[in-house]
Write a structure and sequence with these properties.
Blueprint lengths: L2 H14 L6 H9 L3 H5 L3 H8 L3
């Protein structure tokens, strides 16, 4: 895994209060591999990926 991906994982995990290697972070980066794609994710998409608590 490259440094850029690791930085994205760290930032996402801090923002979402998840572990760096959690299924949520891995799933987000798999579905939205670029910063631009991540920026365009809707709240509904995030809720769908994370699931309800």
């Amino acid at each position: 895994m490259n440094i850029r991906t690791e930085e994205m994982k760290k930032l996402l995990s801090e923002c979402l209060h998840e572990y760096t290697n959690s299924y949520l972070i891995e799933d987000l980066l798999e579905q939205f591999p670029t910063i631009q794609e991540l920026m365009d994710v809707s709240e509904q998409q995030l809720v769908y990926i994370k699931g309800s608590d």
